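Problem: given the chain below (564 residues), write out its structure.
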Amino acid sequence: MRWLEYVAFLAIVLGLARPFGLYLARVCQRQHTFLDPVLRPVESMLYRLLGVRPEQEMSAGVYFLCFLLFGSGCAVVLFLVLVFQNTLPGGPADVYLTTPMTRDLAANTAVSFTTTTTWQAYGGENTLRYLAQVAGLVAQNFLAGGAGLAVGFAFIRGIARERSATIGNFWVDLIRSLFWVLLPLTLLGSLVLVWQGVPLNMAPYTSAHILEGGTQTIAQGPVAALEFIKNLGTNGGGFFNANGAHPYANPTPFTNFLGMLAMTVLPASLMVSFGHIAHRPRAGWVLLMVMVALFVVGLAICDWAETATPPQLADLHVVGGNMEGKEVRFGVGDSVLTAVVTSNTATGSYNSMHDSFQPLGVLVLLIFMLLGEVVFGGLGTGVYSIVMAALVGVFLGGLMVGRTPEYLGKRISSAETRWIALYALLTPMVVLVLVSVAVAVNAGRAGLATNSGPRGFTEILFAYASCMANNGQTMAGLNANTVFYNGTTAIAMLAGRYGLAALALALAGRFAAQRRMPTTAGTLPSDTPIFGALVFGTILLVGALCFFAALALGPIAEFVGRSS
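Solution.
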């Protein structure tokens, strides 16, 4: 039954990829859409108010500078909202806010939500006021998600254009991403969540009498305002500490399935947009099929690991999957599918506790984040992540046949190769250095609240991989609300957001300036199954070379230890 759901999920994603992809291509190219009669006047008014000249495009450097300044400004505003949230009116009552919003936690949270990481070193229901959640976090889910999609649009233009000094206008792309994509879809999705029972209120927390005779406090709040956009914008996080495992945030299997589609459809559709705008539709579908192939392999391994009887229960003659840390209303199947989806889409919106997964299950989730969003990925970032992986494959293929590598008619010379190499190496350089520091100093090891040994090492590696991938999910055994982790995880989040984007946009600018080379008999086709296999193998090879040693110290060592 669960595999029927897996197949249905992928079938729906692929079925929606083409119509959504063509729509996103029209939004990117400022072509006519069915929303234009309503949104064009709003767009023009915003351009006048903000002083934006839509016809004035930007170079890659200026585009990135605008992206960086916009993100920095949003981070400052969110930091101030969080620091001074006690002055905001409305609930919840102060007695429930048991986790103080310290300056280092506020800074970490501000960086987290403005980079679409939504890494949360706190529990939302015992840390934040309602208005801080709405005016701060919900707003940033829209703005950060829209900015990420804008960068994706710019990267696609850089690949598609020739002899151009510009790749678009950041402010135009941001406004169109927000009004043509995120706002209308979120409005519809949030209404569905309210229909399914997700609260949308500003009511005080409820005190309920339980059967045992005591009382239980039930958190309330404008939950539906956050829950859909966090998935659609591939932000992640959650209104509650339990995230998607909380019955108010994710009450039914239908809302769970809808959330997974919200995470996946737009990133998958962008590959169709990429092929359409570059006038190579099959090239976009090949990369999408590589994503699907990697997804299926990881899903199969994680499913096998979690449906097998845990070794700890084997001597007790207990038969069944690993239900520790999983909601009964979702079971193993929905929990595994959500875990794999959220690890691939840079969302981190989980519905089960991944610290309770078996070593191989954790290994799959960890690998997907370490690979750098090449499977679907974040909103916009997934496009340049998989294309960068494809360019590495093109370079290796060019070396094998003795030709200067080309991709979609653009030549990859030594200058472009340096940008590609820096992109491929930035994630291991940041993650492995930070992990090394964390395990070497007392402040890092002190965060291991429940586990040590290989499991403890995995928790630290998982945290920095999650932050670098702008994913945000965490293994609950690591206490990350310390000055050390609030500072070092912020470094990983910033590098994952702005370091990778800077390299991608720089390469897009160089490609945009080139003349498209004609296809010859010696050109490596980029729209064939053989090319897809080359990209697939390249991703696994580069990932193994960079991270196998670290993985061997963590989940692999734990798996071998439990099996022996």
